[in-house]
Amino acid sequence: MKKFLFFFGFCFFLASVGFAQFSSINNYVTRTWSSADGLPGNSVLDIVQAKDGYLYFGTYECLVKFDGFEFQNLNKYSDSKMDFISARSIFEDSKEFMWVGSNDEGIQKFSRNSVEHISTENGLPNNSVRSFIEDRFGNVWVGTASGVVYITP
Fold first, then answer.
1. Exposure pattern of 18-53 as b/e (b: 16+ CB <10 Å)?
2. CA distance linking residue 150 with residue 114, whole number of Å
3. Do residues 39 and 64 lie in contact, with contact meaning Cβ atoms separated by under 8 Å?
4. Number of H helices, E strands in the chain
5. From edge to edge, which strands make up the β-sheet containing 89-92?
6. Do 102 and 60 meet the contact criterion of CB atoms below 8 Å apart?
7. Tell me: the pLDDT tens digits for 113-136?
8. Max Cα separation, the chain?
9. How far is Cα 118 from Cα 125, in angstroms, rounded to an integer?
10. Which of 28, 71, 94, 146 could be a cystine partner for 126, CB 3.0 to 4.6 Å?
């Protein structure tokens, strides 16, 4: 009998937690965007909100800049300063440089006034970039498909 009551209580607990999580989404305003709304594809790999307020989405097709109304696609086909197609990982450092890691094209580091390309030709262990993080000294650590490297800006 104790096992039955324990089992029943455990099932009730799981059900109430599941319903609580499901119903909590109703407390928020939600909106979904897809390729029908202007995204270049439905797979979003990374999201960053920059200090200037724009949202940036990393996709297999490009980096997408979103102002809340319109999507602007950024890659080497839409802007001659850019040297990438895909944007697998995105990061904004403390100096407000945007870092874009691609699947096989290395890193594009840019601001309003400058653009820099970092690849295996100048120090990356692999051009497939997975992640970024900045340490307290301003070094940007980069996770690649062949290990970790840090870059001193």
1. eeeeeeeeeeeeeeeeeeeeebbeeeebbebeeeee
2. 20
3. yes
4. 1, 11
5. 89-92, 98-101, 107-110, 115-118
6. no
7. 899 999 999 999 999 999 999 999
8. 73
9. 11
10. 146
